[in-house]
Every structure is written in structure tokens, then in C-alpha cells.
Amino acid sequence: MIALIASALLGLYVFVPYIVFHRLSSLFIRLNKSQRTKTEEVVAGIIVAGLPFVATSFLFWIGAIGGCFPGQKTSDNHIVFDAVYSDHYFTDHEPAVWDALNRVYKRQADFLFWNYIFLLLEAAAFILLTRYYSRLRRYRIYAWFASHVLLPGSF
Predict the structure, then answer these.
(1) CA 120 to CA 125: how far, in whole Å?
(2) What is the rounded average pLDDT for all residues in the chain?
(3) What's the pTM?
(4) 152 secondary structure, DSSP code
(5) Torsion of CA 67, 58, 47, 150, to 10 degrees
């Protein structure tokens, strides 16, 4: 059960954001890229998904979004993990587990919502920065950023 949950979370937090970013960007920009290995695809997904994830995590941590006390988050996560790990714990604490699961679900849905909002902003920034490359390339900082970060395989 834990492996199934971990796989679902990995997909929602890494693979789906990468697919959304790539598909959205490819609507506006044609990228000349070489064939990547599966490992390179996973690394690219982690990098693309990393910036919105860090931004969302930071805003949740400072309390700007999310709206729940950290102690409650921790105890809810412990209750849900213990219930997933042990059927005996689940049957002994069933009402508490369902309450904690509901709160964890709402927090995860809120986190994913904001994570995808920041992902769309990241994609929009990428599209704009590549779309206006010809105007911005005369700036030294942008030229370095474009050649090393934005479009590293194109130069």
C-alpha cells in the first residue's frame, strides 16, 4: 500500500508537472532536442517540477497558503502513515484515521492546486523568455541564462 501511495505522489508531484510544462511549452515554442534517456527525462522532470514545488513548500511553511497548524499536520501525517502501515492500527483508531485522512487529503489537494498554479507561471515565464530571445539576448545576464539554463542544448 505504501508503494502505491508513493508512486501516486511521485506521479502527481514530478511526472504530471513535467508533462504539463512540456506540452504547454510545446504549443508555443518548437524545441530542437535530442532523444533523451529515461534517466534524463526523470531528471528534467525533477528540475521542472522543483521550482514550483519549492515555492509552494516555502509558502506553506510560512503559512501564506494552507492554513493549518504545523503540529496538526505532523500528527495527521503520523496517524495516516500508521494506518496505512498497520491494519491493526487502522481498525483500533478508525474514526481518528478517517478524520486525519480527510485533513491530509484537503492539505494535499490545496498544495497540489498551488503547485500547479506556480507550474503554469513557470511555463508562462519560460515561454516569454524564449519567445523574446531575439530582443533579450543582447543582455549579458540573459545570454548566459539562456545558454546554460533556459535552452542549454540549443547553442
Answers:
(1) 9
(2) 81
(3) 0.74
(4) G
(5) 110
